[in-house]
């Protein structure tokens, strides 16, 4: 055994001598530290034990790290800010260089226009003032400045420049070839940069969709290095900054975009949003007005314009009202107030503001009964002022009181119900909630801006629609009536209307509310039904609303039928009929109406509508008009089951009764009713062919006399020498003669018409139609005047077939033939023109004198053209084309 190796610690244990010494030193330091602690002389900041740090030393190191990190972050921010400023300066420097000529050209063009107009205005005066104006020897020095001479001069200079360029190219081929080569390389470089920029832009778009806005900005900024003036990239960067709520940077890049393209709508919209968030309402409103002027069809721009410009106008209105209340001469911006308030209006406004102020001071502590009572008193006092004073409604909005009302309504909706609260207290709460909703309804009545602001309160909007959509018999009818009244006031707003249409449960509740039972209190039932019918009528005024109701099919028709059967007032009936008339224009609803599932509802509805149609009051024919219009729409197709139902429930008697009520005193008000009645009569043509009794009634002298009486009343209106005869009169006569043309094949009908001297009178009607220019088709469809002439000529063809001597004398007159040939010339190709050509052909065939006269009038040539045009037509018009 080697004793030296035995004494070697590292060889024996694997621990080096240095480690042993380090351990010993550390133990010595620990012992010294413990001794200092005992003696109270230990300094934790000077503790130097290896591998150990006191909490004070760790805290000191942490602060130093934080300081270094803060300094590093500050240096990084300064570097980024410097880079951003350099990028900003470089971009604007390039932009000014690139677009300075454009701006200079615009300024120069504007200045040239002004100078040119001034030069031309003063040219003659200057010529007379010139000392040598009469020295003819100086005339050779005159230089023409008229537009034609200047254009010729420019063309000559352009030709000379072209020749000089050609000569230069021939003399310097190497230079020119190198120049062209450089141009091509520059073009290729520009195209490559454009492709690079587009690729980076697409990458940025993908990152934006993933909501990685910072990464998207970096990608867009790389795209800018290749295409610094790409407006799409600039606008996208602005959008990213807007998402990050970095409004100054958003405004900067929107401004860059607009510098390149001042009409870029997205940049205007985004900058307006940034201005709006920064409360710079005037700048935001200016941008939105320009954006809307550039893109009036953009729904998003229209909505944003409503919000931003509305807020700006609210700020102005608020300043004006404050100035009026404080009786200051000027507003904050120095302009005179434009709002003029009378003494009573000012008193009402001040009183309302005082009420709002006290409600804000009121605590919402534990005593809820006091809170309910105070709210009731406050809103009950404010309500009459809100209803009649538009300034109170405006201040209610601009002061923020309207938003607070919405919040109180939301809180009231969330109060516990049922067994959890006392019944009397619940009734009081319901009464207060109803009062607050009534106040909200008064605030939005005839005030579109208030409607928009309330719509923007998402929670309030959802709560109102949810409550109405969950209409239950157990709910308070007082609250339901108030909510319905509120929806009636806001339904004129497009935003509210779309929200109601999109909520299917609200549509179902509206249909249910139309036919509430009579068990409800009369006041609530009447007001709810009236408001509901008004809402339904308004919603059905556009296609989306009609589709929403039509999707409920049989349920919708059953509810309307029940509402019509339970009608209690003319106003309610008018609204429900208007609602049904709009719905009946929808093909899907008409298909549902004809289905077997809807048979009982269809028959009940036809019966009720016929009853309403014949009960029209002389002073108000609106209900009759709408009932008849609905029946016409629902029986539109020739094989419609509704036409058979019309016969079953006495449509002929209804027609006779309505026609018998026609009289001169009320004729102008009843034109539409009579026209639709005659149209309904024509609807029965297709279903009475197999029913002899009905056919005999439709062709009876009594009914024909009633129709002729209506025609005579219309003719008396024609005789008043109107400058332009209204379409309603043409339509009425067209439908009457449609029916007479349908039955003109009967000898008894022709004899009846002959007793009325029909041929002469009908020629005069055609002459009047020729003079009215009523054959022009603005929409491409046949006009009522054209249909009238077609139906009249059909009757004349039947009358001519009898070869009656009296009728023949009328037809032979040159005045009559001139009228008929004129109609052939003026009418557009169609069934009416074809009928006129047939009538002339029959007249020419039966009388050579007539043929010669028609030839002299060039009628034969027009008849041949009609024949040729009919041969080339792909389809033949049916007889029903002349019917409405």
UniProtKB/TrEMBL annotation:
SUPFAM superfamilies: ARM repeat, TPR-like. Residues 60-87 have a biased composition (Basic and acidic residues). Residues 46-87 are annotated as: Disordered. PROSITE patterns: TPR. TPR repeats lie at residues 197-230, 265-298. Residues 151-200 form a coiled coil. One of its GO terms (molecular function) is heat shock protein binding. The keyword Cytoplasm applies. Keywords: Coiled coil, Cytoplasm, Repeat, TPR repeat. InterPro entries: ARM-like, ARM-type_fold, CiliaryAsmbly_MitoImport, TPR-like_helical_dom_sf, TPR_rpt. It is found in: Cytoplasm. One of its GO terms (biological process) is protein targeting to mitochondrion. One of its GO terms (cellular component) is cytosol. The keyword Repeat applies. Pfam families: TPR_19. This is Uncharacterized protein.
């Amino acid at each position: 055994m080697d004793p030296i190796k035995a004494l070697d610690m590292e060889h024996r244990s694997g621990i080096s001598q240095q480690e042993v010494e380090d351990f010993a030193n550390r133990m010595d330091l620990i012992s010294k530290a413990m001794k200092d602690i005992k003696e109270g002389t230990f300094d934790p900041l000077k503790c130097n034990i290896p591998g150990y740090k006191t909490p004070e030393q760790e805290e000191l190191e942490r602060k130093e790290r934080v300081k270094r990190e803060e300094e590093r972050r500050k240096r990084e921010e300064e570097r980024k800010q410097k880079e951003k400023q350099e990028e900003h300066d470089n971009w604007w420097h390039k932009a000014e260089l690139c677009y300075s000529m454009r701006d200079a050209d615009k300024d120069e063009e504007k200045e040239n226009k002004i100078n040119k107009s001034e030069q031309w205005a003063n040219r003659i005066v200057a010529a007379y003032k010139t000392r040598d104006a009469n020295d003819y020897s100086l005339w050779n020095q005159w230089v023409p400045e008229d537009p034609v001479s200047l254009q010729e001069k420019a063309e000559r200079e352009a030709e000379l420049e072209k020749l000089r360029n050609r000569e230069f190219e021939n003399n310097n081929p190497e230079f020119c070839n190198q120049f062209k080569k450089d141009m091509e390389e520059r073009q290729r470089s520009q195209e490559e940069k454009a492709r690079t920029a587009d690729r980076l832009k697409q990458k940025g778009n993908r990152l934006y969709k993933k909501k990685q806005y910072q990464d998207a900005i970096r990608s867009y900024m790389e795209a800018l290095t290749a295409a610094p003036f790409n407006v799409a990239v600039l606008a996208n960067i602005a959008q990213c900054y807007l998402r990050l709520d970095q409004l100054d940077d958003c405004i900067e890049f929107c401004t860059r975009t607009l510098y390149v393209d001042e009409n870029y709508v997205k940049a205007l919209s985004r900058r307006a949003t940034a201005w709006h968030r920064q409360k710079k309402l005037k700048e935001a409103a200016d941008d939105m007005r320009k954006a809307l002027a550039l893109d009036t069809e953009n729904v998003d721009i229209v909505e944003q314009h409503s919000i931003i410009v509305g807020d700006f106008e609210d700020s102005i209105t608020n300043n004006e009202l404050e100035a009026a209340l404080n009786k200051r001469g000027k507003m904050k911006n120095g302009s005179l107030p434009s709002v003029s308030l009378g003494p009573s209006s000012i008193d009402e406004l001040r009183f309302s503001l005082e009420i709002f102020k006290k409600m804000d001071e009121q605590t919402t502590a534990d005593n809820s009964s006091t809170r309910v009572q105070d709210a009731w008193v406050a809103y009950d006092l404010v309500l009459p002022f809100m209803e009649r004073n538009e300034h109170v409604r405006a201040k209610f909005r601009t002061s923020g009181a309207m938003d607070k009302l919405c919040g109180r309504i939301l809180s009231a909706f969330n109060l516990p119900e049922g067994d959890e609260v006392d019944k009397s207290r619940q009734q009081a709460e319901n009464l207060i909630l109803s009062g607050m909703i009534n106040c909200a309804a008064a605030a939005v009545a005839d005030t579109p801006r208030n409607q928009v602001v309330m719509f923007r309160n998402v929670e309030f909007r959802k709560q109102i629609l949810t409550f109405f959509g969950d209409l239950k018999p157990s709910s308070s009818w007082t609250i339901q009536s108030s909510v319905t009244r509120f929806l009636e006031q806001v339904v004129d707003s497009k935003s509210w209307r779309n929200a109601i249409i999109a909520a299917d449960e609200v549509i179902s509740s509206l249909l249910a509310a139309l036919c509430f039972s009579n068990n409800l209190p009369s006041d609530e039932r009447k007001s709810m039904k009236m408001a509901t019918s008004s809402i339904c009528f308004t919603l059905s005024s556009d296609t989306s609303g009609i589709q929403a109701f039509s999707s409920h099919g049989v349920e919708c028709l059953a509810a309307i039928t029940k509402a019509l059967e339970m009608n209690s007032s003319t106003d309610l009936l008018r609204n429900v009929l208007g609602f049904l008339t709009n719905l009946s224009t929808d093909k899907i609803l008409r298909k549902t109406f004809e289905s077997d599932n809807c048979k009982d509802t269809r028959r009940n509805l036809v019966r009720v509508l016929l009853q309403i149609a014949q009960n029209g009051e002389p002073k108000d024919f609106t209900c009759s008009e709408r009932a008849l219009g609905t029946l016409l729409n629902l029986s539109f197709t020739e094989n419609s089951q509704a036409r058979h139902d019309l016969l079953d429930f006495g449509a002929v008697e209804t027609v006779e009764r309505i026609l018998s009520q026609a009289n001169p005193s009320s004729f102008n008000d009843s034109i539409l009713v009579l026209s639709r009645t005659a149209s309904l009569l024509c609807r029965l043509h297709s279903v009475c062919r197999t029913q002899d009794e009905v056919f005999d009634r439709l062709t009876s002298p009594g009914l024909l006399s009633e129709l002729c009486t209506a025609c005579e009343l219309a003719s008396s209106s024609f005789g008043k020498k109107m400058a332009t005869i209204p379409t309603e009169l043409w339509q009425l006569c067209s439908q009457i003669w449609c029916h007479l043309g349908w039955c003109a094949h009967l000898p008894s009908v022709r004899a009846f018409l002959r007793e009325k001297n029909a041929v002469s009178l009908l020629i005069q009607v055609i002459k009047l139609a020729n003079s009215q220019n009523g054959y022009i088709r603005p929409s491409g469809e046949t006009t009522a005047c054209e249909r009238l002439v077609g139906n009249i000529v059909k009757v004349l063809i039947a009358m001519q077939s009898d070869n009656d001597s009296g009728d023949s004398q009328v037809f032979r007159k040159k005045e009559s033939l001139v009228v008929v040939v004129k109609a052939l010339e003026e009418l557009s190709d169609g069934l009416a023109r074809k009928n006129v050509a047939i009538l002339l052909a029959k007249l020419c065939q039966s009388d050579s004198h007539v043929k010669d006269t028609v030839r002299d009038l060039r009628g034969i040539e027009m008849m041949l053209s009609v024949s040729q045009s009919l041969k080339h037509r792909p389809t033949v018009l049916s007889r029903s084309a002349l019917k409405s």
